[in-house]
Specification:
Layout lengths: L1 E3 L6 E4 L2 E4 L6 E4 L2 H7 L10 E4 L7 H20 L10 E5 L7 H4 L1 H4 L3 E5 L15 E3 L7 H5 L40 E6 L7 E3 L7 H7 L2 E6 L7 E2 L2 E3 L5 E3 L23 H13 L5 E4 L3 H9 L7 E2 L3 E2 L1 H8 L15 E3 L1 E2 L3 H7 L5 E3 L2 H4 L2 H5 L4 E5 L3 E3 L4 E2 L2 E2 L2 E2 L6 H9 L5 E5 L12 E2 L17 E4 L2 E4 L5 H11 L5 H10 L4
Parallel strand pairs: 4-14, 5-6, 5-9, 6-7, 7-8, 9-11, 11-14, 12-20, 15-16, 15-21, 17-19, 18-20, 21-26, 22-27, 26-28
Antiparallel strand pairs: 1-4, 2-3, 10-13, 22-23, 24-25, 28-29
Helix pairs in contact: 7-8, 8-9, 14-15
Length: about 500
């Protein structure tokens, strides 16, 4: 092992929290994740510990490719000592957007009862594993993920004289902001993430994710970071002194320990004619100089083309994506008229292609900041002409929006959809938009329905919904009665579905 100082600026701890000081602190530098695990108390057994991992493109893949082996060893030791299986306290891992179906998530035959994996947002790679005895979903708005991770005793990392000094965004006074207080609240034993190599000043970057990572890092008893030269170095809140890490894991080419590039998304398919028409209708609602937020998928990809004639758009979004890069390179996105952070694209994480990661690497026009700041409703509302564009699974005749499940089957999570939809409505001239094709691509079923499918999760309530767009038109729902909402939604449904929707609307007493 090599212990050395990566930075002039070290840390000390007040209680369990990490605050900047001028004292030097040495990070232990190791070659393998097994050595790192031993150094922070996860070996000889990780059982009973709580670990939080970085999300999406900053996911620590070397940890996830090896942690199941540590669990198997711990289980073997328990068997040899005749430990009652019912008395085993499992390892608890909290994460978001898992990019691969690792054995620690999927192998319930061997690891159910030994580990609980809880994810704020599900991906297509793992959603079918929900309910397997290992994986479960944590419902919650992206703006609250950091608070939901942290116990009351660690809450000072969320503001006051600590974290507020680390960020430039001035939305730090969070009235009524509280942390999780459930009976089984468990302190974070280990935060495990990824980072770019430290620079000549001893500063490193946490990669393309800054949603909850810094808050979890500062609340954790121990911190491990896997150095990954493939990670983009992103300006903003994730640039920290290397000394925040108790252990740094050097890059490796050893089989099973390979340092890999972050997982990227497949190239987007060309949008179809329906998606294109929906995007065109959305673009008609967005004025020049607006600040926009949108995600990924067919309609957002089509939106990049539909907005090609706009000028001086700005970006304030939880996720920076390839369509936004396309608009920036086309000169559509300049940020020149932004009221907050002008000339900068602001997000909490980035996910997409290798081109996207190359674009944000060292690019001072892009800043990533914590989700609790970026998706704060007040901060969103301070952006003039803020327009939020999201999609959904279905919307009922009263305006209830489901974007995260098909009935009881969990698909993803609410993410920032509700945050941005509500925050945009606080903005002068802003609008919250839900953009959908009128029928589902695979099944042909109407996305505008008399009532949500039994078990469907309400992502945006009817009390908060603003504008719904399909290829057939625009329904401005905010402020309308239930009768007028039903009429407006029926008018933008697929023509073949309108008679049955009207009949149901009458039967339910809406019309």
């Amino acid at each position: 092992h090599t212990a050395h100082t990566h930075t002039k600026q070290g840390t000390h701890k007040t209680g369990n929290h990490r605050h900047p000081t001028t004292m030097a602190k040495r990070s232990l530098v190791v070659q393998t994740v097994r050595e790192a695990a031993a150094a922070v108390g996860l070996l000889p057994s990780p059982l009973g510990k709580r670990m939080v991992t970085a999300m999406a493109g900053s996911e620590p893949s070397r940890l996830f490719r090896n942690v199941h082996e540590w669990l198997a060893e711990a289980a073997s030791d328990s068997t040899n000592t005749n430990t009652n299986a019912a008395s085993i306290n499992p390892l608890r891992i909290t994460c978001a957007n898992p990019r691969r179906r690792y054995p620690v998530i999927s192998d319930a035959d061997n690891f159910a009862g030994l580990v609980r994996v809880e994810s704020f947002f599900l991906t297509k790679e793992v959603r079918n594993d929900v309910g397997n005895g290992i994986l479960s979903h944590i419902p919650g708005h992206l703006s609250r993920w950091a608070a939901d991770l942290i116990t009351p005793e660690d809450s000072s990392v969320l503001g006051g004289d600590g974290l507020s000094r680390w960020f430039e965004l001035p939305s730090e006074k969070m009235a009524g902001f509280r942390v999780a207080s459930s009976a089984d609240a468990q302190p974070i034993d280990v935060f495990w993430g990824s980072c770019s190599p430290p620079d000549e000043h001893g500063m490193l970057g946490l990669g393309p994710a800054c949603v909850y990572e810094v808050e979890a890092l500062r609340a954790a008893r121990k911190v491990v970071l896997e150095i990954n030269p493939h990670l983009p170095r992103c300006h903003g809140g994730g640039i920290l002194p290397a000394s925040v890490a108790d252990v740094l894991v050097e890059p490796s080419s050893t089989p099973g320990e390979e340092t890999e590039p972050p997982v990227t998304l497949p190239d987007a398919r060309d949008p179809g004619p329906i998606q294109t028409r929906v995007a065109e209708r959305v673009a008609e609602l967005i004025p020049d100089g607006a600040t926009v937020q949108f995600g990924i998928g067919g309609i957002p990809n089509a939106l990049a083309k539909a907005l090609s004639g706009h000028r001086d758009l700005g970006i304030h979004t939880e996720m920076i994506n390839d369509a936004m890069v396309q608009l920036y390179e086309a000169g559509v996105v300049t940020g020149a008229r932004k009221s907050r952070r002008p000339f900068r694209m602001v997000g909490s994480f980035a996910l997409g292609s290798r081109k996207l990661f190359d674009f944000i690497d060292g690019n001072s026009a892009v800043e990533l900041h914590p989700g609790r700041i970026v998706n704060d409703l007040v901060e969103l509302g301070r952006n003039s002409l803020m327009h939020s564009i999201n999609t959904c699974v279905e919307v009922d005749l009263t305006g209830q929006v489901c974007s995260e499940s098909v009935g009881h089957r969990e698909l993803s999570g609410v993410g920032g959809a509700s945050d941005t939809h509500l925050g945009a409505q606080r903005s002068p001239g802003g609008r919250g938009i839900i953009a959908i094709a009128s029928t589902a691509y695979k099944t042909g079923k109407s996305r505008i329905v008399p009532q949500l499918t039994p078990g469907a999760k309400v992502s945006i309530s009817r009390n908060d919904v603003d504008t719904i767009v399909t290829e057939h038109g625009v329904a401005f729902l905010r402020g309308l009665s239930t009768a007028d909402r039903a009429r407006a939604l029926i008018s933008i449904a697929h023509p073949d579905e309108r008679p049955s929707l009207e009949q149901s609307g009458k039967a339910y007493g809406y019309l």
